[in-house]
Amino acid sequence: MTTVDSVLEPAVDVLWQRLQGQLADIAQRYPDAALASSLAAEDMVLTHAIYEGGFPLEIFTLDTGRLHTETLGMQDAVRERYGRSLTVYRPDAAAVDAHVNAHGAYAFYESVELRKACCQIRKVDPLKRALAGRGAWITGQRRAQAATRGELPEAEHDPVFGLYKYNPLAAWSEEDVWHVIRALGIHYNPLHDQGYPSIGCEPCTRAVRPGEDVRAGRWWWESSDSKECGLHAGNRVISVVAATEKSTSV
Question: Distance between CA 169 and CA 163 in Å, rounded?
Fold first, then answer.
């Protein structure tokens, strides 16, 4: 395991050591578990922890065909830094063509339904292929990222994809993430320095303005409670159930 006592503040070092323990436990329980990486800051922290810790966990990414050049470049950065290549899953070309021919290349701006249909083809269907046959997967989600993630557990059964799901950074703050990145010299997506705290497909992501929510730049033309693409479809269900339980218990 990576020893970072000399470079991390004590409170953050506790988080890092706990993360290493969580990954060790995941690898033991589910040797076929894999990290789904969007190549954003949180996923780069997890990538560093997995590769530097020597954990036998696969890391894969989804190339939707609409990613920023900077995001695509992170695949090369990972390979150069760790000597490992990410597994890349892409959408079915025929399905993409059929959707574009039927609705247009930018139909996702027209309605939530068409946007989610695009996400289904470009992200959810490839994710299903990536997760097929696995016992568990790992994400870089955090509770503070969005209203739909406020009740996010660190470990849960994923009813959408039918396997176990780990969110080891669920309790981390944005400051925790960036302290670790800077202290350990972890490579990160240059879009973060351009005002993109959350990064998705290029047409569906913009830089956030001062004071805006970290997810405000994702599908910015939609309301905040719809800003999930289907990869984490259970988030909204969990949040709604938790909110209902809170309101009825008062």
Answer: 19
